[in-house]
Amino acid sequence: IQQNLIIRPMEYGLTPYLLDLTERFTTDTGVPITLALPPETDTVITDTTTREIVYAVWQQALDNAAAHAHATRVTITLTLTDEIYFAIADDGVGATEDQQVEAATNGRFGLKSMQMRLESANGRFRFNSQPEKGSSVEGWLPILL
Question: Which end of the chain offers a freer environment for a tag, N or C, measured as fewer CB atoms within 10 Å?
Fold first, then answer.
């Protein structure tokens, strides 16, 4: 019963947390982020679980960019149509498919955890990467009313 009485901060909105996450990334890495976040984000994305999934995937994608990409810039876009769409792209070193398989074999599960989070909420996930051309994480989620 007590768990249901606790008001979680995500219930108040997603935007402040995403802005804080991107600001901390830039402060910690020196890599600037270009961010396109619609002003209606918090009025359209009202489901707390959906907000938590978006935040967690963004956090993992930025952690991966900081740890592996050697990027000089990151671009994040979120759009709201009949679904939530977001993309986090960097201009870093990228990764081959063999490198991705090797990472998963060695117990690194960042990409898989992002995929599982999105799919657990009937969403979709896509990761694109090419050596020396950067990487992108894309996610789609239904808008829950």
Answer: N
36 to each of 39, 85, 102, 106, 138, how far by Cα in Å? Answer: 9, 12, 33, 34, 14
Strands 74-80 and 124-130: unpaired
Backbone angles phi, psi at 128, to 5 degrees: -120, 135
pTM score, whole prediction: 0.89
- Alpha carbons within 13 A on the beta-carbon side of 65: 33
Q: Note the maximum CA span of the chain.
A: 52
Beta-carbon count within 10 A of 21 CB: 16
3-class secondary structure, 128: strand
Q: How is 13-47 classified by DSSP, letter by letter?
A: -SHHHHHHHHHHHHHHH---EEEE--TTHHHH---
**pLDDT tens across 9-49, in order?**
788 899 999 999 999 999 999 999 999 999 999 999 999 99
- Nearest to 121, CA basis, from 105, 142, 103: 142
CA distances from 114 to 4, 5, 46, 72, 128 (A): 26, 29, 20, 23, 13
